[in-house]
Amino acid sequence: MAKTHYQFKPFNVGRWVIWTVFALVLLAAPLVFTSSLSQTMLIQMGIAIIVCLSYNILLGQGGMLSFGHAVYSGLGSFLAIHTLNQVTQGAFSVPVSLIPLAGGVSGLLFAVLLGWVTTKKAGTPFAMITLGVGELVWAMSLMFPEFFGGEGGISGNRVTGSKPLGITFGPQIQLYYLIAVYTFVCTALMFAFTGTPLGRILNAVRDNPERVEFVGYDTQKVRYFAFIIAGFFAGISGGLAALNFEIVTSETVGAARSGAYLLFTFLGGATFFFGPIIGGILMVLAFVLLSELTKAWLLYLGLVFLLMVMFAPGGIASLIMMNVRVAAFGHFRKLWVSYLALAVTGLVALLGTACMIEMVYHLQLNQALGPEMNFLGATLNAKGLNSWFGAGLVLLTGVATFELSRREFARQWGGIQEDIAKEIKRRETAA
Fold first, then answer.
1. Is 355 within 8 Å of 391 (Cβ atoms)?
2. Is-above-0.85 flag for pTM?
3. Which of 50, 53, 275, 301 is the most exposed place for a label (fewest CB within 10 A)?
4. What domains, with CATH codes, occur in the chain?
């Protein structure tokens, strides 16, 4: 019988190609995006990728919805900044490049301390416990200014200690490559974790904890060890953030930061390993770029999250993989017109929605500047009936045409999935 696929032994060529491309992207990114803003965003993206992947160990791999993951990244930041200050004062000699590991050790130790209680329960009780722990640590950050620095936080200077090969980590480019190395290594280690016995049994605990207990595993210990590993990598991301910003405040352990990790890990796609990588990139784009474009950026994020929950609960990664599957069976060319229609009608609906949102925000926040405002090159009157009528008309037109396009797409998608199922059955029968 003829082979239907090729096997590469002893190496997985595809995996090596992906990791090589990932390394090359990290290496070449600052050479392509040379501006100070771009490099700042690249640095933050590397940090965000690590922390979102660490959060996904809990959410995606273990099914543990945590509302307090910022505790471990934030405490990692605090210990890293204190370590940095001790190096500056000459208390001990540690290369600046290793200080993020101090943050990792801090995250690990606090995960060991708090994780045993936290992982006693699963599901909703686990989520509530993490929320309580997060609020407790945030309150303590204001009660112990000696360690947390009060409202002003703790500042430091990363240009200190030994300078091998003249590397001071003062220039952005030097700091970027340090964070790029940590990003690559931590991503590789967390991916390797998914293939370990602990990683496999963690998936089983997520899917069917009763069966896992039946075969003799302690599900609480499995969750606990995964929690510790997640805390370690979260601490490393916190240590890198401390080097980047050179200041750590109580905000780093707050609920808003934990909510951001949850939101963007979900948007990226918690069910796929590369989903949190997408989520980390989106988080930086939202916090840095979108926040500069509009004061209503949090509202837009909320709307995006709502739409993703309704129409794509698996996140962006799931959308990508579903279309890869369709393309693998040669059906993607049938959908490009429908995708174009969805994109155009969706943009029309977004335009109408954005007009109305921006006019509301203008009236609330910029009323002293008068009713007129500029939006995408057009002048709108926030108090004028014509502007509101036009925005409403654009919104309704976009929503109506998008719904028609969506129904046609759903019909096509269903037919393609039936064809794929038939093809799979045919191949199985032939084999």
1. yes
2. yes
3. 301
4. 13-294 (1.10.3470), 329-430 (no CATH)
